[in-house]
Amino acid sequence: MRVRGVYETFGLSALIAMLSAFAAWRSASASRMLAKKTAEVERQRLILSVARIAQQTLSKAGSLRQLCDEIKVTYDALATFNGSYGSSRHKLFKDRVDSNRAQGAAITAYIENSIPDEKPIDALADGEISDLLLKLTMKREELIELSDVLSQEKMELKSQLLIYQEQAARHQ
Hints:
Elements: H1 6-82, H2 88-114, H3 126-170
């Protein structure tokens, strides 16, 4: 049996220490790379969310314009049936619909102005992207709320119009 010398023992210890240090460095490096990749994936998720919310909001604004047009046509038909076409009440209803349409257009303009033209969304800081996402989400909710109110109004008007049409059919 051979007894190791002092130098052999320290050499082996140094080698073990170096291998341990290398393993720790590699683990830390892998952790940093994983954290960096996770941050990149989260950033891409935020950017995609901004694009999706902006698209949904602009789409909702388009359907809101169409809804306003349908309500105005229904108001015209109702006013024609009850003989108040062109009256101040008829004009007031149409002005209210135009006001709702203008509110939707203002939200659309806000959204279009919120997305910067001078630099792409990718160039924004994470905090700016989060703020933009929050603003767009709030504006989308405003449009959804306005659209829900107008949809309810449209349904009520359609039922009134149906009543007038049935009454007119009975009198013929």
